[in-house]
Specification:
This protein has 13 helices and no strands. By secondary structure, the chain is mostly helical.
Length: 276
């Protein structure tokens, strides 16, 4: 997203990401178009808008004004909102161990990310954008888990992207995208990074994530967002950054939090049973 913002606006990045993800998924999975029907159309529209469309605009907008570490921390709120919405959705009471797991995972994410965070007080208002995006993710995850049980992860990804992919393509072509591609020497480089974001970070990743939701449950799937700081840390090691004991404690807190929200008898397990 950062490299994409060098040539494109936040809305262009979001719509390009969706467009490329939809086109790639359609090419490799066109046979799944036949699975669209009147019953699943609205849930797929919800997943398309809230799981892809709106967040993919809000996150680049936030990153333009906020330190990416803070945006990463706010993204870690997904499991918390997923649990709260799931409990409201299914009427399941929260046990203190599950809430402890959510808070422990969030604390671990903050522990890893805070040292690099630089936030100006004038930009804090933009923090509402990633928070809204995480609520959108949470609603989308619960919709998949409760309303789209009869569809496979590939079909969910393709059909949900279809609802927003076609409008996204129209939007991109209606902007100055083609002019930027012709006049900006760095545009092709930026487009290359957005293409990676669309194909790998959206199409492939969402197919795998939807599969995880259907096989492991909404809360556990959402909780893997706590692993993002861990993966970022691994890339830091590859890039020659220092890793100390504090980083190990942060990763341990994240993994323990994921375990607590998915243990036997947890809301995650009961939500899975109710939607099986």
């Amino acid at each position: 997203m950062k490299f994409g913002l060098q040539s494109f606006t936040s809305s262009q990045i979001g719509m390009l990401r969706i467009s490329l993800a939809f086109l790639f998924t359609a090419v490799i999975g066109y046979k799944h178009f036949s699975k669209l029907n009147r019953k699943n159309a609205f849930p797929l529209l919800v997943v398309g808008l809230l799981g892809n469309g709106i967040p993919y605009i809000l996150f680049p907008l936030a990153i333009r004004h906020l330190d990416s570490s803070l945006v990463g921390i706010l993204n870690s709120l997904v499991p918390l909102f997923t649990l709260l919405i799931g409990v409201f959705w299914f009427g399941i009471r929260i046990k203190w161990l599950s809430m402890l797991g959510i808070m422990l995972g969030l604390a671990g994410a903050i522990w890893l990310l805070v040292p690099d965070m630089e936030v100006g007080m004038n930009n804090l208002t933009y923090g509402i954008y990633p928070i809204i995006a995480t609520v959108c993710y949470a609603v989308s995850i619960n919709t998949i888990n409760s309303k789209l049980k009869d569809l496979g992860s590939f079909a969910i990804t393709l059909l949900s992207l279809m609802f927003i992919g076609i409008p996204a393509i129209i939007y991109v072509l209606s902007t100055d995208f083609l002019q930027i591609m012709q006049s900006d020497p760095g545009a092709w480089r930026s487009l290359g990074y957005v293409s990676i974001l669309g194909v790998v970070g959206t199409s492939v990743a969402v197919i795998l994530f939807n599969y995880l939701i259907k096989t492991s449950g909404s809360l556990f799937a959402a909780s893997v967002t706590y692993i993002v700081p861990v993966i970022a840390l691994i890339w830091g090691v590859v890039d020659g950054e220092d890793v100390g004991v504090t980083h190990v404690f942060g990763m341990a807190a994240i993994l323990l939090g994921v375990y607590l929200v998915n243990r036997k008898g947890s809301p995650a397990e009961r939500i899975r049973k109710n939607t099986a």
